[in-house]
Amino acid sequence: xxxxxxxxxxxxxxxxxxxxxxxxxxxxxxxxxxxxxxxxxxxxxxxxxxxxxxxxxxxxxxxxxxxxxxxxxxxxxxxxxxxxxxxxxxxxxxxxxxxxxxxxxxxxxxxxxxxxxxxxxxxxxxxxxxxxxxxxxxxxxxxxxxxxxxxxxxxxxxxxxxxxxxxxxxxxxxxxxxxxxxxxxxxxxxxxxxxxxxxxxxxxxxxxxxxxxxxxxxxxxxxxxxxxxxxxxxxxxxxxxxxxxxxx
Length: 248
Fold this sequence. Notes:
The chain has helices spanning 4-14, 33-79, 85-126, 153-168, 181-186, 203-215; strands spanning 136-139, 142-145, 174-177, 194-196, 219-222, 234-237. The protein is an alpha+beta fold and 248 residues long.
């Protein structure tokens, strides 16, 4: 079962091709309606899968609790010489299996939230006019800034890490550095971009956006598409802007 749920997320994404222009290209032509529709379809499918995972997780956590209880009961029986070591080890193995199921589902929820954030942002941007150089826009669930400063993933990330460590005393929480399997499956050009796992409304998120604007570095801040969830919220940093390309 290892990575099965993560692979399912990728299968969902690859089954629904999307296409759209650059997020803030100079071209003022509106994004194709099909791009918005396909992005919306991705969001719908991922939300449905997220609901399934939300229902599954409590059941798996309950089974883990029961497995731990059975193990402790058998530990007592083992100490009393009533059962064999082999019988006790069987309950330990059951706890390990139940623990892995819970961990796998939690990982899948994180993967879905990240994919939802990307797809929701793509859907929103597909319906917006491009920003001019230096343009800034804030709307519900989305902030974008088309900074004009030169950006290099390697050197730019190093400067961001230094700023963040100095300001907050801990490492910059990078969720995606350059191209990742998730971006491949979604057809997003993320080769010279960086995703930072901070909520835009948090002190870290606001400070990071202030730093990026002052430095003229383009960014997109996106909230999660799942009410109450925070794992999908992030700040995308860098150029070129992500593009959605057709995946065959």
